[in-house]
Amino acid sequence: MDLTRLRTLREFADRGTVTATAAALHRTPSAVSQQLRGLSAQVGVALTEPAGRGLRLTDAGRALVARADAVLAAAEHAEAELDAYRTRPRGRVRVALFPSGAVMLLAGLLRRVAELPGLVVECRDVDVRHHEATALLADFDVVVTHRAEQSPPADGDRVEAVHLLREPLDVALPADHRLARAPSVTLADLAAEQWICVQVGFPIDDVLNHLGDRTGTRPVVAHRINTIAITERLVAAGLGVALLPRYGTGWEHLARRPLADLRPARHIDALIRPGTAEIPTTAAVLDALRVEADSLSAQPHRAGP
User: Fold this and answer.
1) Is-contact 125 98, C-beta < 8 A?
2) Which region, left, alpha or beta, applies to residue 26 given φ > 0 means left and ψ of -120 to 50 means alpha?
3) What is the mean pLDDT of the chain?
């Protein structure tokens, strides 16, 4: 089976149209169509069928795509093993991280992989909801994402979730807040406060809603801000309180207090294609991410002023 044609089929499954596939592969649409027809002829069954003005996968096409990741990963693994005789590991790995995850992990990741000659890591911060992160594997080899503790990891035939870190979430208060020196706080203690939270559907919002359901308290969200640095400034200025991640927040001008009787957290995972964890380049990046995540949880963290 021609691997170039198989990669084209996988890209078509990810992109949905011949035009988008051609753009991703830097080919013409006619070349992509020819590759798809050639693969159908090679396997002896139609893999695509007309759908309006475009194409869609047949049942056979979807079945082949479900196995394509493993086949291509095995081929890449074999190529990487041959490269390992010269340098180990060798190649490029594309990594996407959600913004506050990049604050925590990116500098350390890049420092660690800089010690591995031949490994090139290209990174980008991408802010998407947890259920949207899997789609990023069309463009990236490793996608670092976050989810609420009550949410399951990403699942599917074409994705594998590698757990990196459980990050506690604490209440951020202005340094002069009436509860700033309390050993802990409850949502009921903060019933009269205005909350600053992330956009609906992002993990911290899911956690806050879950906590409200459990305690029977409904936090009043006045502002929705996805950039943690902005939220820190607003809280420090006395313009609200927030639920913030322990390791991805600068607490110098804030008071950090745990929630009494509750241990809210978010989980951080690295998403990859099935089988790619065995490729030396991807394995090296995952190892560096694990070490960096472990170092965060081992560090002492101040409760603020």
Assistant:
1) yes
2) left
3) 89
DSSP state, 153?
A: P
- Residue reference for tokens 């607003």: 234
The neighbour count for residue 234, using CB atoms within 10 Å, is 19
DSSP 258: P
Q: Which residues contact 138 (CB under 8 A, 6 or more apart)?
A: 11, 14, 15, 24
Query: Model's pTM, two decimal places?
Result: 0.74
pLDDT category at 302 given cuts 50, 70, 90 is: low
Query: If you average pLDDT over residues 187-206, what whole number do you get?
Result: 93
> Beta partners for 255?
173
Q: Which amino acid is at 38?
A: G
Q: Which amino acid appears at position 253 of this protein?
A: H
What is the helix, strand, coil percentage profile of the chain, to 5?
45, 25, 35
Pairing label, strands 241-245, 160-174: antiparallel
Burial 73-109 (b: 16+ CB within 10 A, else e): beebbeebeebeeeebbbbebbbbbbebbbbbbbebb
Residue-wise pLDDT for 77-100, tens only, equals 777 766 654 546 778 999 999 999
The rounded distance, in Å, linking the Cα atoms of 267 and 144 is 11
Written as six digits, the tokens of 193 are 């406060």
Q: Which two tokens stand for residue 73?
A: 């990963």
Using one digit for the tens of pLDDT, what is the confidence trace for 48-82?
999 888 899 999 888 888 888 888 888 877 777 66
- How far, in whole angstroms, is CA 204 from its chain's centroid? 14
CA 145, CA 270: separation in Å to the nearest integer? 6
**Strand-strand pairing, 254-257 and 160-174:** antiparallel
Identify whether the C-beta of residue 256 lies closer than 8 Å to the C-beta of residue 264: no
At 244, the amino acid letter reads L
What was the pLDDT predicted at 84? 59
pLDDT at residue 297, rounded to an integer? 81
Peptide linkage before 89 cis (omega within 30 of 0): yes
Whole-angstrom distance, CA of residue 11 vs CA of residue 20 = 9
